[in-house]
Amino acid sequence: MEQQERLLATTAELKKTLLHQLFTQGIRHEPQKQIDIGPVPESWELVKLSDVCLFQTGGTPSKQRPDYWEGNIPWVSPKDMKRPRLADVKDHISQEALEEGSKLAPAGSIFVVVRGMILAKDVPVALAEVPMAINQDMRAIIPGSRLQPAFLLYAMVALKRKLFEKVGRSAHGTMTLMSSEIADFQIPMPDKETQQEIASAIETVEQKHALVRRKHAALTALFRTLLHQLMTAQIRLNRLGNSILDKSKTEI
Questions:
Q1: For the segment 42-63, what is each residue's pLDDT rounded down to a tens digit?
Q2: Do both 152 and 217 map to the same domain?
Q3: What is the distance between the alpha carbons of residues 208 and 11, in angstroms, rounded to a whole number?
Q4: How many folded domains does the chain comprise?
Q5: pLDDT in the model for residue 228
Q6: Which of 172, 189, 206 is the endpoint of a domain?
Q7: Quick one: pLDDT band at residue 239, thresholds 50, 70, 90?
């Protein structure tokens, strides 16, 4: 478990470093230029999201209709925005619920939380790997033909501090990221081939981090089960086997 925790920290730091390097220096070793958001490769273009993307809102189907919540369409809310990529989520709605109270965003959309107290400390973003519906506290950013979806995801992660600066507080005290701020948000954009190369490099590190996280979760579950069985005398220490004890002594 301790080894996996160290690997988690290492891969997280590697991703952070790689994001900074790729979005300031690029991959072609070309000269840099200074723009509003900082240094970027000279050939990259600074674009507003509204010039290269479409936007979509969401909604929540009636909770008074249990049948609305028995479908197979993933329905995303801010609580699901804990991973950079979403292939499925806990809640699902029916086609009727979608037509009555929400909208379906296409695969490749970038989801961003726009309302809620989570915005006091972070602006969660994630890429939808399959078509998904979202609730009213989120926006879907749909990349146009000039943008590779994964590149847009990582661009927004790399520039999250700039995005966080756009968060305000509504009259009711709720933290809010206005739609106009998202539309006007600027990202640096290279050609699509470079976008793909950058996205692939970061995704490789991301996959390694996810693998380590799964291993850590499995080891943690095993540890808790073993501890419970030992503390409740379901198994006794000598039943774990001399080989395990000998190995532990050797490692210590």
A1: 999 999 999 999 999 999 999 9
A2: no
A3: 7
A4: 2
A5: 85
A6: 189
A7: low
- Does the pLDDT value for residue 252 go beyond 50? no
**Which of 135, 170, 189 is a domain's end point?**
189
Identify the CATH number of the domain in which residue 50 sits: 3.90.220.20
SS3 state of residue 44: coil
Tokens of 29: 């070793």
Q: Cβ distance 23 to 158 under 8 Å?
A: yes
Task: Write out the two tokens for 167.
Answer: 């968060």
**Phi, psi (rounded to 5 degrees) for 27:** -125, 5
Average pLDDT estimate for 118-134: 96
- Torsion angle defined by CA atoms of residues 67, 69, 71 and 73, in that order, rounded to the nearest 10 degrees: 150
DSSP characters over 49-95? HHHHEEEE------TT-GGGGSSSEEEE-GGGTTSSEES--S-EE-H
Residue 217 belongs to domain spanning:
1-43+198-252
**Helix ranges, the chain (H):** 2-25, 49-52, 95-101, 149-158, 160-164, 179-184, 192-231, 242-251
Q: Distance of CA 194 to CAs 11, 48, 153, 188, Å?
A: 23, 19, 15, 12
Instruction: Report the share of the chain in percent with pLDDT over 70.
Output: 94
List the one residue out of 189, 188, 190, 186 whose CA is nearest residue 50: 186
Give Cα 108 distance to the centre of its chain.
13
- Could you tell me the pLDDT band of residue 240, with boundaries at 50, 70 and 90? low
